[in-house]
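Could you show me just one protein sequence together with its fold in token form as a worked example?
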Amino acid sequence: MSAVDNVTEALANTSIAPVAPTGDNNITGGQPINAAENEAVIASAAEGRRLYIGNLAYATTEGALKEFFTGYSIESTSIPTNPRTTRPVGYAFVDLSTAEEAQKAIQELSGKDILDRKVSVQLARKPETAAEKAEAAASGGEGVSGNEGRRRSSGRGRGRGRGRGGRGARGGRAVQLDICPFLREYFADLDITLASD
């Protein structure tokens, strides 16, 4: 058996499971992402027990987060990290035991400081499934988070709006040219205001 055959056989007997990045601030700690864990996250968000904690300092650890929630029944904490840099992303999730306790925590802890930063404590939204994201993108409508398939309300798109008056229409600087009438149409699409006759 050749080396290529050995490698082919070895690869045929392996499977690839998504793995979360390692680190002190990651709830999964480098273990494969568990479907049961994902279901638990969806369930706690749907039941109103999962909290989103925003505006966290990057140095915030799960220990500091648990200390912040002293007096509450914490089921789990999670500080997501950027997979490329393994640096915390500045927000966290905390699952509490009841929805009533979550509402109490929102009232009491929102605006308080963790590591000299005022944090925002809110109910976490239920995560979208891949099917929901695909459906929202295909329909052009808004998804659960509100940004998918979003269209610009104005017809001009990106840029400075040339062809629709440009700066001249907004009261900005305009170049005044005295020019013959047959060239006015040519300059109509440029960012130039022509002097009237």
